[in-house]
């Protein structure tokens, strides 16, 4: 069995179709007539642009305009004067052939992305390769066999699938896919989830064991790939697959329900988003709010700092589309694993512990004020709450609030309309903030527990480090004690306490968090219906009684066994 990353939920059983990566040999050569070569290259780019326009139309029809944005980004690459201009210069000035010039610049550009500490940006290297390969195929007259042409049921196995490949998949024939490389945040994985197609990525060299025609099982939830299973395993997974399909259909009835327990306790189920483009799935799955709008993706998609007007337009769009539902917008969280090419930061020994998020914003108040002004202006168009990330002490919080008030005063004097009572909260993601949460609670309207960072800071574990990733543990007693402490301190001060990390969507832990008194659970849109099913089938009073002993346990294995025996049952 191969153990990898579950990129998209579901179980598929079928014969493997192994896609061998076609090696196109590009030879380096000099050309005598660089002008003719430049024309040849420019014509190939125009042909690739025409192909992309067709792909965009197909994807819009099949998956919606949100997913078509991926290929619109590819178009932008082919229209980017810096990227295309670098290739043109290599042809014109250095007299290299178009194929070699394209491949060299594309490889160098992809390598820059791959070296970034930010996982999201690292995975954009796939997009660079995808779009450059499209142009290269045109230049070399390579006829590409389209995945859309597959005429028999199969499970695709490949080193990697580009977003273009994935978008062409016909679910009538492709049951699932497995790749050697890739991650959950790659565009390929995002499209797989949109298609509701089981997918496992990052399986490593082990996929070499899979041969054409092998019977394989793909479990996109657990990240497992089983090759030529025995009869007992096959029977077990056929049963699991049937149960998964039935449970998925059943979940649709929870889309428009309130998130209320059997005994009448109502909590809020919210969604995490990175842009206005994510709202289609949010609304489809019946989210009651946006619990986390990660504004850094707006900055990361630009070539320069977004203006106040650009930000205002984006925030206003989200608020209007949510039609009166709460939208919690987190201020800029750049630094650590998220960097901007156009905003160089000094190299740091420990960037996760360094100049990032609120620390950067309080230093670069010009950037901070631009965002806060845009947020305050947008507050006139919906129910906006502002959240500050990475707060570790009271001084930071007070400084951030002071700048926010100054922005309000400026806009008031300019005659700009805004909500005079914008609620302000902080992310509790640093242990020091959790420990003094009783003090911080007196100065904010809400807390939101960011478990992704809280866990790694509490346990001193880099969650991206494969060698120690086993230590990154939702169930660690220290983590659960801190969460319980924050909820208790928030409630004593009369404020609501939310959670916006991955832990909020863990159906095994939802009853525990309910028992601790968590008010809002915010997660990826795809997790909402399963979470709501768990909540509506839970008894709040029972969860309260069963959750308290957890705080006395000494290790996570003990806690998992207790949950399995008592709460989950």
Characterization of this structure:
The chain has helices at 34-63, 65-78, 81-92, 98-114, 119-122, 125-140, 163-167, 187-195, 231-251, 279-284, 296-300, 308-321, 357-363, 365-378, 394-413, 431-435, 437-440, 451-459, 477-492, 510-516, 528-536, 540-547, 556-567; strands at 2-3, 5-8, 11-19, 154-158, 174-179, 199-201, 215-219, 224-227, 268-273, 289-294, 326-330, 383-388, 423-428, 446-449, 496-499, 520-523. It has three domains: 2-21 and 145-233, Phosphohistidine domain (Glucose Oxidase, domain 1); 34-140, Enzyme I, Chain A, domain 2; 257-536, Phosphoenolpyruvate-binding domains (TIM Barrel, Alpha-Beta Barrel). The model has no long low-confidence stretch (mean pLDDT 89). β15, α20 and β16 form a beta-alpha-beta unit. An eight-stranded mixed beta sheet has the order 1-8-7-3-4-5-6-2. An eight-stranded parallel beta barrel has the order 9-10-11-12-13-14-15-16, surrounded by four helices. The chain has 569 residues and is α/β, with parallel strands linked by helices. The chain is globular and about 75 Å long.
């Amino acid at each position: 069995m191969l153990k990898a990353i579950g990129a998209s939920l579901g179980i598929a059983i079928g014969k493997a179709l192994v896609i061998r990566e076609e090696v196109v040999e590009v030879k380096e050569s000099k050309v005598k007539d660089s002008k003719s070569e430049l024309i040849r290259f420019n014509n190939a780019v125009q042909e690739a642009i025409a192909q992309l326009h067709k792909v965009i139309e197909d994807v819009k029809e099949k998956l919606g305009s949100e997913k078509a944005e991926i290929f619109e980004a590819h178009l932008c690459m082919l229209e980017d004067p810096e990227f295309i201009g670098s290739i043109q210069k290599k042809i014109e000035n250095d007299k290299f052939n178009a194929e070699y010039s394209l491949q060299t610049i594309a490889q160098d550009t992809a390598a820059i992305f791959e070296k970034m500490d930010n996982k999201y940006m690292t995975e954009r290297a796939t997009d660079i390769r995808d779009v450059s390969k499209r142009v290269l195929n045109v230049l070399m007259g390579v006829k590409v066999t389209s995945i859309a042409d597959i005429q028999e049921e199969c499970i695709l196995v490949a080193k990697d699938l580009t977003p273009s490949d994935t978008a062409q998949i016909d679910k009538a024939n492709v049951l699932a896919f497995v790749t050697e490389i890739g991650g959950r945040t790659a565009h390929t994985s995002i499209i797989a989830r949109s298609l509701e197609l089981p997918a496992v990525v990052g399986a490593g060299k082990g996929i070499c064991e899979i041969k054409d025609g092998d019977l394989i099982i793909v479990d996109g939830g657990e990240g497992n790939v089983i090759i030529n299973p025995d009869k007992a395993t096959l029977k077990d997974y056929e049963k699991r697959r049937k149960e998964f399909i039935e449970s998925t259909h059943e979940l649709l009835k929870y889309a428009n329900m309130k998130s209320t327990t059997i005994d009448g306790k109502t909590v809020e189920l919210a969604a995490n988003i990175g842009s206005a483009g994510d709202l289609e799935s949010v609304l489809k799955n019946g989210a009651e709010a946006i619990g986390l709008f990660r504004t850094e993706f707006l900055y990361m998609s630009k070539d320069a700092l977004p203006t106040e007007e650009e930000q205002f337009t984006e925030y206003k769009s989200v608020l209007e589309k949510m039609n009166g539902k709460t939208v919690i917008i987190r201020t800029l969280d750049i630094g650590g694993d998220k960097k901007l090419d156009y905003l160089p930061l000094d190299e740091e020994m420990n960037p996760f512990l360094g100049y990032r998020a609120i620390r950067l914003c309080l230093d670069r108040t010009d950037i901070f004020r631009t965002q806060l002004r845009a947020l305050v202006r947008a507050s006139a168009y919906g129910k906006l709450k502002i959240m500050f990330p990475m707060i570790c002490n009271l001084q930071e919080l007070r400084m951030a609030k002071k700048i926010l008030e100054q922005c309000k005063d400026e806009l008031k004097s300019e005659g700009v309309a805004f909500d005079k009572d914008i609620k302000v909260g902080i992310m509790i993601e640093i242990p020091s903030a959790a420990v003094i949460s009783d003090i911080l609670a007196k100065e904010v309207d809400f807390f939101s527990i960011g478990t992704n960072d809280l866990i790694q800071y509490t346990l001193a574990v880099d969650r991206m480090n494969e060698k120690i990733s086993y230590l990154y543990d939702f169930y660690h007693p220290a983590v659960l004690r801190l969460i319980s402490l924050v909820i208790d301190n928030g409630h004593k001060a009369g404020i609501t306490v939310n959670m916006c990390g991955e832990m909020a969507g863990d159906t095994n832990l939802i009853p525990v968090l309910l028992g601790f008194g968590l008010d809002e659970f915010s997660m990826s849109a795809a997790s909402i219906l399963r979470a709501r099913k768990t909540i509506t089938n839970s008894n709040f009073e029972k969860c309260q009684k069963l959750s308290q002993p957890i705080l006395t346990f000494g290790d996570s294995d003990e806690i998992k066994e207790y949950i399995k025996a008592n709460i989950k049952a």
